[in-house]
């Protein structure tokens, strides 16, 4: 006989009090925010590449992600914009942690993208596959590409002069392209999609992996992860994604692309990323 009970060690994210699809009004789409300048310094390349006197370039695109759709999207975009006399070889791989939890908030989105590249470079220093590819294909340039989706809470980043502050949580994607041969870094941020507040609040109840201000939480009588306490009292490295909570409560929803269903296909996570990449300079 087949059991239909929930395995004891798996969390059950279904909550009857969360709104269903019909109860969620159309979500707003916001322009890219003006984020603070990143202060992250990326590692230099630790080995030499092939050098010759010909004009041909052979680029190795390295994509540290577990999301195959994001990786394919970046590869397609760079292939479409190849300069003359340039070949490109692409490799996606896992294991390069963002270091900012499953659900980044606020500036953790920027930090996570830079962390992925730094961790990928450390992994690749001792990767026989990478070294063999560099030698076999006589690679002359390397580009690392990382995408980190993140949610901004109301009030961050501060509104531009003359613009009203955004009063709802919003989901964006932050993109970093890094050429460790030249040291050039290019960044971009996508348009954003409003996150239903109830789902953002629910995800935060599962806590954070970065330190939180327990004294401030106690002062306001709240519990860790609840939005009733000030923002400085909660972390930015969420343990559970908003998409996970949504997928457990809304039928036919893709946890990695919930934007498509909840905007009636006016927005799609991958299309938003694609549009951003098209506007970015590539550090060839």
Automatic annotation (TrEMBL):
Protein name according to UniProt: Podospora anserina S mat+ genomic DNA chromosome 1, supercontig 1
Superkingdom assignment: Eukaryota
InterPro entries tied to this protein: ITPase-like_fam
């Amino acid at each position: 006989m087949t059991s239909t009970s929930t395995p004891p060690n798996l969390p059950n994210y279904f909550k009857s009090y969360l709104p269903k699809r019909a109860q969620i009004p159309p979500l707003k789409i916001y322009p890219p925010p003006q984020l603070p300048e990143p202060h992250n310094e990326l590692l230099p390349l630790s080995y030499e590449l092939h050098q010759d006197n010909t004009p041909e370039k052979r680029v190795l695109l390295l994509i540290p992600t577990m999301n195959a759709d994001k990786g394919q999207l970046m590869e397609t975009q760079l292939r479409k914009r190849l300069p003359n006399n340039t070949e490109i070889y692409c490799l996606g791989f896992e294991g390069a942690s963002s270091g900012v939890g499953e659900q980044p908030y606020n500036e953790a989105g920027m930090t996570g993208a830079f962390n992925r590249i730094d961790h990928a470079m450390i992994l690749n220093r001792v990767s026989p596959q990478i070294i063999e590819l560099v030698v076999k294909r006589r690679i002359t340039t390397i580009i690392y590409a990382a995408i980190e989706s993140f949610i901004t809470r109301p009030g961050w980043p501060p509104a531009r002069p003359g613009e009203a502050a955004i009063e709802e949580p919003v989901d964006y994607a932050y993109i970093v392209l890094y050429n460790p041969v030249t040291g050039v870094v290019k960044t971009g941020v996508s348009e954003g999609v409003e996150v239903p507040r109830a789902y953002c609040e629910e995800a935060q109840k599962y806590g954070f992996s970065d330190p939180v201000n327990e004294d401030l939480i106690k002062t306001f009588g709240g519990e860790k992860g609840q939005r009733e306490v000030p923002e400085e009292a909660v972390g930015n490295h969420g343990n559970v994604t908003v998409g996970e909570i949504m997928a457990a409560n809304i039928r036919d929803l893709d946890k990695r692309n919930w934007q498509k269903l909840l905007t009636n296909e006016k927005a799609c996570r991958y299309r938003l990323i694609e549009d951003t990449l098209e506007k970015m300079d590539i550090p060839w």
